[in-house]
Fold this protein.
Amino acid sequence: MSKLDRFIHRPTGCAPRATMLLIFAFVAALVLLDGHSAALPLVVAQDAKQPPSKQPPSEKPPKKPSKKTDGGKKGELPQFEILPVDPPKTPGKPGDKPTKPKGNDKGDLKPTKPEKPAKGAFKPLPDDPNLPEGTCPMCLGATFVPHAKRLPYVHVEGDRAPAIAMVVPWQFCPQCQSDRDPQELIDLEKARLANAGVTHLEWEKRMGMPLVRVETRHNTLHCQMSPDVARRQGEAVEAAIAYIQSKTRSCFLTPTRPSTHEFVYLWDKETYLKSIEICRNVEEFRRGEDWHLYPKLACFNGTTTTVANAAEGKSAPPEHLVVSQTALWNITKATNGHAKDWLDVGFAYHTEYAVKNKVLIEYVRYQLNDTRLGPNWASEARKMAGENKLVRWNDLLDSDLVAWNPPHHVTAFATVSFLMQDPVRFAKFTVLIRDGVSAQEALPKIYGRPLDQLEALCGKWILSSG
Ligand SMILES: [Zn+2]
């Protein structure tokens, strides 16, 4: 009997809570990425600032995003030197300040030429014996590295056509792909863009309504929203990707593309309910098993598509789900579905907190829970650490989300946040996870300390992060 069978008939306890005044009224979402994981994000309804409305609001142009992208309020999650070992020489050592992701350049689609490899400045990295043999230490095997200067790319239908060079998501790795011509990437995008609108038309036809198409370098959104609100969702994707790439100096953890992750974002519950009936007959959703649960959730997933309910923006600003799902889909794809729950979900929590300064999207599996956490999870983690309530790694690393309680969620968040203090190592760690190495084995190998020492450092870091 599968895990799913065990829980499928359980009462889910997720009738909308009448206690909206209390912090947690939620809907949840089923995440089925490549069939390996079914995690239900809960949307916590305490940041609902949008007025109730049947229609997507016509918003003012979005404000410039916060400059803080790496861990909440200043001082809450300080940098912490966890390793006394020599950092890699170039490019950039883990302790360096990350390149700040570029801010919101709304509509900024200025042409850029194909990126030329900076041959003179480039110094190859030595092989890392902790990585699988033959892994390029520069790109971790992705064959691409982030753009040297990354501008956000958000194209809303109706915007003028972008310069193709703007759409290219990365550049060839100068170490292992030095003979490649950047023009290849331009040509690839040209070919992709020739058919890029087809899926959008399909979704409009399925839903029987116009949707606003938004393209980023890493997914396509089909939004039942005003163009301004839809644009903000694209900007949220780009902010999440920019954060991950700039921190890890790698493209390894951002493998999704517009053709491999589609995001159908519906504004109200009525339309969302309609989409569930429609998706029953769509091939990529056939593997879904919890159809009876979907109406109560914030989203459900096929093999390439997230279908989500923005709940009119009342449960949480819609961008939170976008950031959280972008992180979750990317780490899941990067690790080929081999990451355990603490890593997948912890990475989603960490990224949401890093980009949006709050965690409002919580994940559960098969059954909803009554997690009651404030949006500042750094503070929650500190509090729990002080009360000795965090979950020991021994109990966390192989645990199943279905049995999690609030300390599990917070420990997963805090553990990933701790490991992301050395983001280059974090990316290398996920390379081993992709190859089927356990976290218990991969962590000491990559972080250079026994597991118990690393855990002790993590606990100390959490306590000192206030
Ligand atoms: Zn490489």
User: Anything to note?
Assistant: The pocket of zinc ion is lined by residues 136, 138-139, 143, 173, 175-176 (CB under 6 Å). Confidence is low (pLDDT under 50) at residues 1-38, 43-109. Residues 30-51+61-464 form one domain. The CA atoms of residues 212 and 223 lie 5 Å apart.
